[in-house]
Amino acid sequence: MARQLEVRLFGRQLFEVRSDKVRQLIKDNWLSQIYGSNTKTGKLVNENNATAVSAVWSCIQVYSNTFAMVPLNVYRKEKDKRIIDSENPIHILIHSRPNVYMTSFTWRRAVMMQCASNGNSYTIIERNGYSGRPVALSLVINSRDVKPYLVNGKLWYSVKDREEPVPAEDMIHFMWNTRDGFNGLNPIEIARENIGQALAIQEYGSRVFSEGGAKRVALKTPGKLTPDQKDSWRKTWKEKYGGLDNMHELAIVEGAGELIEIGMNPEDAQFVQVMKFKIEEIARIYNVPLHMIQSLDHATNNNIEHQSMQFVTHTMMPHYVNFEQELDYKLFGLGSKNYTKHTVNALLRGDAKTRAFWYRTMSDLGAYSINDMLKKEDENPIEGGDGHYVQVNRIPLDKMDKVDQEDPSRSLAEEAKKRTNGHSKVEVN
Questions:
Q1: How far apart are alpha carbons 203 and 213 in whole angstroms?
Q2: What is the mean pLDDT of the chain?
């Protein structure tokens, strides 16, 4: 008879499991969250050993550094304008110092590193007991110490070493991706088969060199050997020809034995090509361009810039928006005039020639002043550089009659041109 497994919360029984099979599935899932999951290659994959694959570590580095390097500011709406609210205490928290032991860059990089490693990152909002104003943002160092759960439609977070659960309004929960809204999907778990294969390939390559060669051989004997004889042959071969130092030693086999090659060597298995394919697969799962993880086989000077911009737009921008909305709701509440915004323009701008063309276009339209352009280039403003100008030959069609009346010479010139059919030059004094 199967034993019952009761699941309780705050002393209240939520449900019970009577099936041994279901109970084992729950146990296996819990263990996989902590220790990782086995793959078809037999390799155990978790967030700790997955970073041994250079492509995984590079993707996590690209994510976390790109996420943290973009300035994050608090803005305030004032009619049709928006200004950086640098005096707001929350601006200091997210832009400069979220807590006493972290800079904003360190905090946000750690947030994204946790998300890219296991899908979730948690930061507790420490509030002033009297006013409820946020005074610190404390990152939970190990995101696996936090478990979200719903009680009567309200979201709570159980945090290790904290007696009381944390309500959702006091927890900044940033997820890499999610299906249900409060449990982040683990990218390592999603990519575990590809990572497991990459780990297996790396281990195979290491063993090839540690064992002294690329080929695996077997000794074929006409007669049957005793166990002691087998062990002696193996030990002698390994001591004499194993390892990098002995891989070029001349192998000598005495007696009637015959050495035959078995298994695959790196050339037969297309070792390098398979490893490159695994790198591409991992980069595809993380949606990171190959050139950003130092795989330059298909990169050219023409496409790298566009791929980098696409990375910001299609890969990073969703994370920026997600983080901003989480901060806005948890730190300001609905209906506030304050909001957070990442400054991503620096990541999207092109080379000097492209920027110059864009600035000239916006200046001719009257959208940018000289000081606006200098600010975007991180240069100091100049005196008198706040004016906005437009080209005088760009006027509305319904104003043409007024221009002709104010400038008779223009009308005379046009009339003279018509009379001569545009063949002669007419000067109007």
A1: 14
A2: 78
Residues in the chain: 429
The model scores a pTM over 0.85: no
Main-chain phi, psi angles of 372, to 5 degrees:
-60, -45
pLDDT tier at 3, thresholds 50, 70, 90: very low
Which three-class secondary structure string do you get for the chain?
CCCCEEEEECCEEEEEECCHHHHHHHHHHHHHHHHCEECCCCCEECCCCHHHCHHHHHHHHHHHHHHHHCCEEEEEEECCEEEECCCCHHHHHHHCCCECCECHHHHHHHHHHHHHHHCEEEEEEEECCCCCCEEEEEECCCHHHEEEEEECCEEEEEECCCCCCEEHHHEEEEECCECCCCCECCHHHHCHHHHHHHHHHHHHHHHHHHCCCCCEEEEECCCCCCHHHHHHHHHHHHHHHCCHHHCCCCCCCCCCCEEEEECCCCCCCCHHHHHHHHHHHHHHHHCCCHHHHCCCCCCCHHHHHHHHHHHHHHHHHHHHHHHHHHHHHHHHCCCCCEEEEECCHHHHCCCHHHHHHHHHHHHHCCCCCHHHHHHHCCCCCCCCCCCCCCCCCCCCHHHHHHHHHHCHHHHHHHHHHHHCCCCCCCCCC
Where along the chain do its domains lie?
1-35, 44-214+267-348, 218-264, 356-419
